[in-house]
Each structure stands twice: as structure tokens, then as C-alpha cells.
Amino acid sequence: xxxxxxxxxxxxxxxxxxxxxxxxxxxxxxxxxxxxxxxxxxxxxxxxxxxxxxxxxxxxxxxxxxxxxxxxxxxxxxxxxxxxxxxxxxxxxxxxxxxxxxxxxxxxxxxxxxxxxxxxxxxxxxxxxxxxxxxxxxxxxxxxxxxxxxxxxxxxxxxxxxxxxxxxxxxxxxxxxxxxxxxxxxxxxxxxxxxxxxxxxxxxxxxxxxxxxxxxxxxxxxxxxxxxxxxxxxxxxxxxxxxxxxxxxxxxxxxxxxxxx
Length: 261
Hints:
single chain, elongated, 6 strands, alpha+beta
């Protein structure tokens, strides 16, 4: 899954929720299609309802390494036209099945997601509340666990919510990534800032390279550096062209106004 699709997925699920009545944890019945991802080596999953007009898909799509956790189906099975299969994917937050028939290298049928109330209880002890079945289904697909949430809390990462836990998991943010910034002298970023940093691919090696040129960028400037492709090579080229007293802000302006061209 490329970075833009990952970010789109994260945003789609990062919708604020409030405490909901118990019936929202009822099983979810839907339609499902399992095929191959664009790379051809992983499964892709589409879930949606049958009321979508003009044959369009109205549900959600998932295609990442988590789909490799399916049991009851293999890539080879998708070549077995007419085969009856039940693909299953389980996580701490619940269990998902897609039962149907293989047609045109896709398993098409009906899905069932069963939430795990014990997971909801465990998350409540950590201070996370307000789950509904759809969010638990997303947690299941992405393998968001109570242990993962606990590890982030124990690392003193502030601002973790049931929504941004999804993005934190998608972008594989762990305590070590947060600690890397502390080791470089920054105040530990909160959850949303860590997501923003990871989305742009900010890493310790590049921070050290830009610091070696005499800059002391803030966390927000680190994000700008990646967005505007302010590399050590770019900085040196601008210095060689006669730009004096360069700051990150000036380098960003050079990029914005295309003064380097």
C-alpha cells in the first residue's frame, strides 16, 4: 500500500467517536470480495453493501500486509473457478469471515464480523472507550492489539485515541521511533505529531545530516524539510549559488518560489 493510500485509509477511519450503546457491538453482515493486491503477492479485500447504485462499490477497501493473515484461502485458490471457500481473519478485536465462490480470480460472497467484547473491556482498563463494531473490524484488519496500545502508553506518548491508534499502526510507529527524537534532544512528540513525521518519512539519519550543516530544525521544520525535499545536497547547491544566511524557512521559500531553477 503506497503512502497516499495509507494516509487516505488512516483519515477515513480517523473520525471522532463518542460512547455508543451496546447494540453497536452486534455482528456486522456484509458482502465481500477477496482478490489480489496491485503487487500481486498479497490479498486485497473489499467489503460493502448490495444497495450501491449502478454496480459501483460503496464499501471499504483494504490491501496491505495484514491481509496475509487470512486462513482458508491461498493465492492459488483464486485460480480455482467455482471453488467454495471460507476465508477467515482473526484478531484480538474480533473475527472476520468471507464465505463465497471463486469467480474470475476473486472470492465473492458474504462476510461476517464478530466483535470481541473482552477486547473492549481490556481497552477500557487502558482508558480507551467509545468503540463500535466498525472500528473493531478495522482494528482486526490492521491487528491493533491492547498490548500495542499499552506499549505506546508506557512510552509516555501523549494524545493516543481510539482513532489515531489506527494511523499509528498503519505507519508502524512504535516506542523506538518516538524515543529516537528524544535521543536527538527533542521533546517527545505526541501521537499526532509522530504520525505526521512518519507520513513524511522523517528519520534520525536525515536529521543528523541536516544538523551537520549547522541547522537545528524544529519538529515542524523536519516535516517541511521532507515535504519540500530540502536535502543536504540541495542546501549545499544553494550555498554554492551565493545564498547567504540560509534558514529552513528561507530554503522552503526557495522551493516554493522556484528560485533554485
